[in-house]
């Protein structure tokens, strides 16, 4: 295992940005490439890659993930981070996903078992943290989620499809229906013809994120992307 894992550490895969279509340029690709390298360096992404690969060597599969977080406690600026998943068995990934990078997955869970004190400190307003919450009764109904020693908290990510009308403009840009008026107004200010060449109805994926405890939803929001931000790393498949 160490020999295979060390070979991977000497030849880590790297993200490469290629400019293709829709006004893309080599200069923009270089800028995006630099941003990705900064994100990787800032979040110590090599550890995330190495952990996922070693899990795949040892047990056939591993994962790393992408998250967003505030840059510091007194800031409103958010940054992107690569994070490792130490325990691959804490991830429940869509079994119908076929792509090697998991890009076609429709859902995934990441579970974490925490102590009652830690849970009540993190979620003081939840039903389980209430003074009259009967953990024993809940544990009888949800034995794998609530025990006298711990409570399971899960991140649940799932993909929903929304129907949108998109337009191809004479400038070569593709815009959604709600962006059309602004794009055309900006183009008109610069004397550019941004009239519609053709339109079609399409399905746009939206990623939902929520945190649950088996009894209630603790938090929820939309993830700013089109893929489940958990990346599987597979070993030999059969």
Percent strand: 25-35%
Distance between the termini: 20 Å
- The number of distinct β-strands equals 9
Report the major sheet.
6 strands, antiparallel
- The residue ranges in which pLDDT falls below 50 over 5 or more consecutive positions are none
Q: Give the fraction of residues assigned to helices.
A: 25-40%
The averaged pLDDT comes out at 91
What form results from the Cα inertia axes?
globular
Gyration radius, in Å:
22 Å
Count of discrete alpha- or pi-helical segments spanning 4 or more residues: 6
Order of helices and strands: HHHEEEEHHEEHEEE
Q: What structural class do helix, strand and pairing data support? A: alpha+beta
3D structure, described in words:
There is one protein chain. This protein is of the alpha+beta class and 238 residues long. It has six helices and nine strands; from the N terminus they run H-H-H-E-E-E-E-H-H-E-E-H-E-E-E. The strands form two sheets. Strands 3, 4, 5, 6, 7 and 8 form a six-stranded antiparallel beta sheet that branches. Strand 1 and strand 2 form a beta hairpin. The chain starts with a helix and ends with a strand. 15% of the residues are buried.
């Amino acid at each position: 295992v160490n020999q295979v894992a060390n070979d991977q550490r000497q030849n880590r895969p790297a993200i490469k940005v290629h400019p293709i279509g829709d006004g893309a340029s080599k200069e923009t690709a270089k800028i995006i490439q630099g941003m990705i390298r900064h994100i990787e360096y800032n979040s110590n992404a090599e550890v995330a890659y190495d952990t996922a690969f070693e899990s795949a060597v040892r047990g056939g599969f591993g994962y790393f993930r992408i998250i967003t977080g505030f840059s510091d406690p007194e800031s409103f600026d958010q940054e992107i981070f690569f994070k490792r998943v130490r325990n691959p068995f804490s991830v429940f990934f869509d079994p119908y996903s076929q792509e090697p990078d998991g890009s076609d997955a429709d859902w995934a869970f990441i579970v974490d078992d925490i102590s009652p004190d830690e849970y009540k400190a993190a979620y003081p307003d939840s039903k389980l943290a209430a003074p009259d919450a009967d953990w024993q009764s809940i544990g009888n109904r949800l034995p794998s989620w609530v025990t006298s020693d711990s409570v399971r908290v899960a991140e649940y990510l799932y993909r929903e499809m929304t129907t949108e009308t998109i337009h191809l403009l004479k400038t070569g840009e593709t815009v959604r229906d709600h962006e059309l008026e602004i794009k055309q107004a900006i183009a008109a200010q610069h004397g550019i013809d941004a009239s519609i060449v053709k339109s079609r109805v399409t399905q746009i994926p939206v990623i939902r994120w929520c945190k649950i405890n088996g009894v209630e939803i603790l938090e929820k929001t939309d993830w700013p992307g089109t893929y489940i931000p958990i990346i599987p790393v597979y070993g030999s498949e059969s």
